[in-house]
TrEMBL record:
The keyword Transmembrane applies. The chain crosses the membrane at residues 13-34. This is Type IV pilus modification protein PilV. InterPro entries: N_methyl_site (IPR012902), Pilus_4_PilV (IPR013362). Keywords: Membrane, Transmembrane, Transmembrane helix. Coiled coil: none annotated. It comes from Shewanella litoralis.
Length: 184
């Protein structure tokens, strides 16, 4: 009597399913790591944008350069006179009012106040952001710190004491510092 096999045994099917499940778990974990890395990269890009935004505002209002210096957490400037130039509007602002308006708009942007979700949460900006500006003559340093997704190391370990003093020390702190000169 000869037995002919015309299919798969239950053990072969189970082994194939285990291999398939292990592969799918690996792909799922890869997807999670890629999403976290993508978000970290997005936050870095946003921090760069916000640092350059305030530098450009400082260049336009360079007579007030020294008074831009300080530490900002998103709530430092509570209100300011609107100094945006609108076609047909007749708004005249002093340099001091322009500086206050610049800082007000900048803080609202990096703290995410300008973008609100349907459940009234700030969804734009950086997570737990702190910004520091130092002005020495015409040399300007802008530091943006925020809370990253993953715990790695403090993003200011190899930086200067000014950068280290900006924001709260943490294994999730990320930092971007920009040094430039603004000629008046």
């Amino acid at each position: 009597m000869s037995f002919k096999r015309n299919g798969f045994s239950l053990i072969e099917v189970m082994v194939s399913l285990v291999i398939l499940v292990i592969g799918l778990i690996g792909i799922f974990n890869l997807h999670l790591v890629a999403k976290k890395g993508s978000f970290e990269s997005f936050q870095q890009t946003q921090a760069s944008y916000y640092a350059n935004d305030i530098i450009n505002r400082m260049r336009i209002n360079s007579s007030q350069l020294a008074s831009y210096a300080g530490t900002y957490t998103g709530t430092s400037i509570t209100s300011a006179k609107a100094c945006d130039v609108i076609v047909g509007a007749n708004t005249t602002c002093t340099n001091i009012e322009t500086r206050n308006w610049d800082l007000f708009q900048w803080e609202r942007a990096f703290s995410g106040v300008n973008e609100i979700s349907s459940d009234n949460n700030n969804v734009g900006g950086l997570d737990s952001a702190t910004a520091c500006i130092r002005v020495v003559g015409t040399d300007v340093t802008v530091v943006m710190t925020w809370k990253g997704v993953r715990a790695t190391s403090d993003g200011t370990e190899t930086k200067s004491s000014f950068v280290k003093s900006c924001g709260s020390s943490s294994d999730r702190r990320r930092a971007l510092d920009v040094d430039t000169a603004i000629i008046r």
